[in-house]
Structure formats: C-alpha cells, structure tokens
Specification:
mainly alpha; 4 helices; flat
C-alpha cells in the first residue's frame, strides 16, 4: 500500500523539495529566460503528446491479458488517472512557458 501512496505523491514531494531548495538558496533565474522557456514549452508538448499516444495505445489493447488484469484489479482507472494528470500537467507547463515569454 505504501508503494501506491508513494507512486501517487512522489512527484509533488520532489517538486516541493526542489522549489524549497531553490527559494532557500536564492538560486537566480537566467537574465534572458527565453531559451529556457522555449525548451520547457517544447519538452512539455512532447511529454503531452507521448502520454496521449500511450493512452490511445492502451485503449487499443482491450483484448490483451495485461489489460484484463489491470481491469480485474481495479488499476485501469488509476492508470488513466495518472496519464490524465501527466497530460494536464504537461499542457499547463507548456502554457505557462509561453505566457512567460510575454511576462
């Protein structure tokens, strides 16, 4: 059970620790962040696309044994929840990066 708990919250914990370290040590942001923002938007778009394709591929495997096992163990909804969360976060990062260009 601890594995599923950690699986759900590890990205948030690591993000919070990273943001705290960045704030505590007053690490400076680049003077011209356009390269960083552009790379972040591109990477986020690639992640969103990859996760969307992965979700589509999983849906096409309805006749496979792995799909049936996930469904029997009620893990399919959790898997799709993780994929939706990843896609939403990636799209949010891409939008935030584009907005950063104009801020």
């Amino acid at each position: 059970m601890l594995g599923l708990f950690w699986e759900r919250w590890e990205a948030w914990v690591v993000s919070l620790i990273t943001a705290t370290i960045w704030y505590y040590f007053k690490i400076s942001f680049p003077q011209d962040p356009s390269g960083l923002l552009g790379a972040s938007a591109t990477l986020a778009a690639v992640f969103a696309g990859f996760l969307g394709v992965a979700q589509g591929l999983i849906l096409t495997m309805k006749d496979s044994e792995a799909y049936k096992i996930l469904k029997e163990n009620n893990l399919l909804s959790r898997l799709f929840s993780y994929l939706r969360s990843g896609i939403s976060s990636s799209v949010f990062l891409a939008v935030l990066s584009v907005v950063g260009f104009f801020w």
